[in-house]
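Sequence design from tokenized structure. All designs in this work follow the same two-part layout: the structure record, then the generated sequence. An example of the structure record is given first.
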């Protein structure tokens, strides 16, 4: 997990996971509780959390897309995934895991 935080693509993967979880919590737990259980407390709590994660996901997707020189079609695919339930998990598996970081190695090998 620490190694994921050291690169932009790793941070995007973590944000994608958290954003996906927050969307699922909203859709499958909070909204039914609000409308069928007449209890809006969870929507009030999860709504802002999901909103912040959503904005972070969009910002980081565009940032990583520019850094990695993704074609626009890939950027759009990743952005659309965040509004589809389970979409961020699919994009993580099909797109984000395959990307390589542009970060330089932490230790340069000398003499080899």
């Amino acid at each position: 997990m620490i190694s994921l935080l050291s690169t932009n693509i790793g941070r995007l993967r973590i944000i994608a996971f958290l954003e996906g979880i927050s969307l699922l919590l909203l859709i499958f737990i909070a909204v039914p509780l609000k409308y069928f259980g007449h209890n809006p407390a969870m929507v009030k709590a999860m709504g802002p959390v999901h909103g912040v994660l959503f904005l972070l996901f969009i910002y980081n997707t565009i940032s990583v897309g520019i850094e990695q020189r993704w074609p626009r079609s890939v950027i759009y695919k990743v952005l659309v995934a965040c509004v589809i339930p389970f979409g961020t998990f699919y994009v993580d598996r099909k797109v984000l895991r395959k990307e390589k970081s542009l970060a330089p190695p932490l230790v340069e090998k000398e003499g080899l």
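The longest helix spans residues 8-36. We note this feature because it recurs in several other targets discussed in the main text.
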